[in-house]
Amino acid sequence: MALTTKRFAGAVLVASVAVLGAALVSQYWGGLTPCELCLLERWPWWVAIAIAAASWLTGDRLAPQIPAFLLAIVFLVGAGLGFYHVGVEQHWFAGPTACTTGGAAATSVDALRAQLLGKQAVMCDEVQWSLFGVSMAGWNMIASAIMAAACVEAARRARRMRFA
Fold first, then answer.
1. How does pLDDT run across 126-161, given as a tens digit for each residue?
2. pTM for the complete prediction?
3. Which of 44, 40, 36 minimizes the C-alpha distance to 77?
4. How many domains does the chain divide into?
C-alpha cells in the first residue's frame, strides 16, 4: 500500500487525538489534576493535531515528506519535554520552582503564608499515577518518541517512493 499524505496525516491525527484524549479523560473523569509540566507536555500533541488535520485536508496535493518532517520535529520536542518531566520526577533535574517540592524553609509567618499561597496544587516532581512503574510523563515520552520515529520512517519511505 502506497504512503499518501492523506493516509499518513489521518493516522497521526487519530494517534494524537487518542493520546491527548487519554490525558483529558484521566483529568476530567479520572480525577488526576495535571501539574504545570503535564500541561506543557500537551502542547506538542495539540500542534500535531493541527498539522495533521491541515495536511489531511490538503489531501495528496502536499508531499508526505513535508508534514512528516514537521511532525517528527514536534514529536521530538514532546519526547524532550517528557524526558525533562521524568527527570524532574526522578530528581535528576531541578524542576520549575513553582511546582517542585523543597526549597528554603519559611523564617516567618508572612514567609510561610507566601509559600503556601504560591504553592501549586499538584507538584511536578511527585508521580500521581503510574503503570508498570512508568509515570504518565514517562508514557508521554515513550509515545512521543514512537511517533517521532514513525514520522521519520514515513518521510524516509515517501522520499524513497518518490525517487523509485
1. 888 778 988 888 999 999 999 999 999 998 887 776
2. 0.79
3. 44
4. 1
